[in-house]
């Protein structure tokens, strides 16, 4: 945290947003808070305010999270509340006086010294660099302390897995699990190479990898079968599995490639299994977990059970008290006696050969392939392995000497020279035949070349013809497109004309319907006129008949009137 931030809390100084400073002196700072870092005009008041400040590693609020995780300035609560009002009044008055003084000086042509600002900026930048360096050092020191505390508190550490620690976890107060990779030393490399020479360990196995229970069980059974000379310590899988009807573990079936070795170790009592107890309820769900990493306890106990004869008088409690390990309570009861027997071997014990002198046994800690190789080559197998290697070297040297003698004998009789002369003649004849075959192949290639050239020429002709057809098709396509466009135009015209004809037809149909209506009206009128005419004619006839009757009546009346 910058030193100017400490001074900024005082009301004696000009705020960073004062406009006349930026306009008067032409100073534009990327850090506005630096402008406030002036020398106080009242040192006594400034000192009295600094008395309430203290430098601490953590803040007063335990729930507060500082992203810098470094030194911070925290202010203690003021004990005397009565002096607080007086202090505030004095501070406000001093601030007003300072502002008036600055304004008055600025009106008289007061010039602000650029060197002072430069000094402030440089000092602040230096403080920033110092703070950043101190933060880096503090972070590194926190890493070191975290690693040391985790190494002392963690009982189970994976040695071959790279370490992963997170800064976020440290901020939350969580110490991450530290894993320390272990380098393989020359003894471990030599032990692994010896087992590879004896074909006990596969060639692709790496020394810095973690060893699984499956691998260690297989290698342990192979080592015992190939190198053990005493029958009382030897476990033969074919003899151990004869008459066996129960699988020792639920997760290792007969189809498993390592079933023979794991089952033989269980039959011999080296590994606890369903065969070790008679309780049928306990026999359910017993698993070997072949793909898990072998622990220190199993690494030593399995090997010790094969190498040592446990005396019947040893009790578990005495053995546990005599081991002398700090974490002896974490060791299983079935391995206590054999571990104590191994401890009695002194410097030749399996544990000290593999892990050296230690006060913590760490029984659940995983082991590497190199450590498993050292365990397999230690104890009773150490002399057997060296003798086996010497035997192999002697056989190899004997074979080399026999080969040298046979070669010298063949050279003396000239068989080698005749053999190589014969081979030379055969190769010479073969070279002639190859030359002939080469000439024939070259001729065939020339013929094939001419054929391919003719084919290429025909292909080019066909390509030219196809190009011409493409051009013709493209021209036809353009014409068809033009015709299609014209047809579209004519079709649009036809649709317009058809629409107009439809409209005209509608109009004519309406007119025709009107004419038909008028025709029906006229026909009705004609029919009415015809009926009227017939009625008039009937009335006329009736009038004529009446007139005739009247005339006859008149004539009769006239005749009757005549004297």
UniProtKB/TrEMBL annotation:
<protein>
    <recommendedName>
        <fullName>SLH domain-containing protein</fullName>
    </recommendedName>
</protein>
<keyword id="KW-1133">Transmembrane helix</keyword>
<feature type="transmembrane region" description="Helical">
    <location>
        <begin position="86"/>
        <end position="105"/>
    </location>
</feature>
<feature type="domain" description="SLH">
    <location>
        <begin position="245"/>
        <end position="317"/>
    </location>
</feature>
<dbReference type="InterPro" id="IPR001119">
    <property type="entry name" value="SLH_dom"/>
</dbReference>
<keyword id="KW-0472">Membrane</keyword>
<keyword id="KW-0812">Transmembrane</keyword>
<feature type="coiled-coil region">
    <location>
        <begin position="466"/>
        <end position="525"/>
    </location>
</feature>
<keyword id="KW-0175">Coiled coil</keyword>
């Amino acid at each position: 945290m910058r030193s100017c931030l400490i001074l900024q809390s005082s009301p004696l100084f000009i705020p960073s947003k004062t406009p006349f400073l930026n306009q008067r002196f032409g100073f534009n700072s990327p850090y506005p808070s630096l402008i406030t870092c002036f020398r106080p005009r009242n040192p006594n008041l400034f000192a009295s305010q600094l008395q309430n400040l203290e430098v601490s590693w953590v803040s007063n609020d335990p729930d507060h999270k500082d992203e810098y995780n470094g030194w911070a300035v925290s202010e203690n609560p003021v004990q005397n509340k009565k002096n607080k009002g007086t202090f505030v009044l004095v501070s406000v008055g001093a601030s007003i006086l300072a502002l008036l003084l600055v304004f008055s000086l600025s009106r008289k042509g007061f010039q602000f010294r650029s060197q002072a600002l430069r000094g402030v900026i440089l000092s602040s930048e230096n403080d920033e660099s110092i703070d950043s360096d101190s933060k880096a050092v503090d972070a590194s020191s926190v890493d070191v302390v975290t690693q040391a505390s985790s190494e002392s508190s963690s009982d189970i550490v994976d040695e071959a897995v790279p370490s992963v620690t997170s800064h976020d976890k440290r901020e939350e107060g969580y110490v991450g699990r530290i894993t320390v990779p272990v380098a393989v030393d020359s003894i471990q490399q030599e032990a692994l190479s010896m087992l590879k020479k004896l074909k006990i360990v596969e060639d692709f196995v790496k020394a810095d990898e973690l060893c699984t229970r499956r691998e260690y069980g297989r290698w342990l059974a192979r080592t015992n079968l190939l190198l053990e000379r005493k029958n009382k310590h030897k476990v033969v899988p074919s003899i151990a599995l004869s008459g066996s009807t129960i699988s020792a573990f639920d997760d290792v079936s007969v189809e498993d490639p390592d079933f023979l070795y794991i089952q033989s170790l269980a039959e011999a009592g080296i590994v606890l299994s369903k065969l070790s107890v008679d309780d049928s309820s306990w026999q359910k769900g017993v698993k070997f977990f072949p793909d898990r990493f072998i622990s220190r306890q199993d690494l030593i106990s399995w090997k010790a059970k094969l190498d040592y004869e446990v005396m019947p008088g040893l009790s578990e409690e005495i053995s546990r008290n005599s081991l002398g390990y700090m974490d002896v309570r974490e060791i299983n009861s079935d391995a206590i006696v054999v571990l104590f027997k191994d401890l009695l071997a002194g410097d030749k014990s399996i544990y000290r050969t593999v892990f050296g002198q230690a006060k913590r046994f760490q029984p659940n800690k995983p082991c590497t392939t190199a450590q498993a190789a050292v365990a397999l080559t230690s104890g009773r197998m150490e002399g057997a392995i060296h003798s086996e290697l010497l035997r192999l070297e002697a056989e190899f040297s004997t074979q080399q000497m026999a080969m040298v003698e046979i070669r010298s004998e063949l050279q003396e009789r000239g068989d080698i020279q005749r053999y190589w002369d014969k081979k030379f003649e055969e190769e010479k004849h073969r070279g002639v035949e190859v030359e002939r075959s080469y000439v024939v192949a070259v001729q065939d290639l020339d013929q094939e070349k001419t054929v391919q050239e003719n084919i290429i020429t025909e292909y080019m002709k066909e390509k030219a013809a196809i190009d011409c057809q493409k051009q013709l098709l493209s021209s036809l396509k353009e014409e068809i497109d033009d015709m299609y466009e014209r047809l579209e135009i004519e079709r649009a015209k036809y649709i317009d004309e058809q629409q107009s004809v439809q409209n005209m037809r509608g109009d004519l149909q309406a007119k025709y319907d009107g004419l038909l209506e008028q025709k029906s009206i006229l026909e009705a009128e004609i029919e009415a006129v015809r009926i009227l005419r017939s009625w008039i004619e009937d009335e006329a006839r009736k009038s004529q008949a009446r007139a005739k009757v009247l005339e006859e009546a008149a004539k009769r009346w006239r005749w009757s009137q005549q004297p």
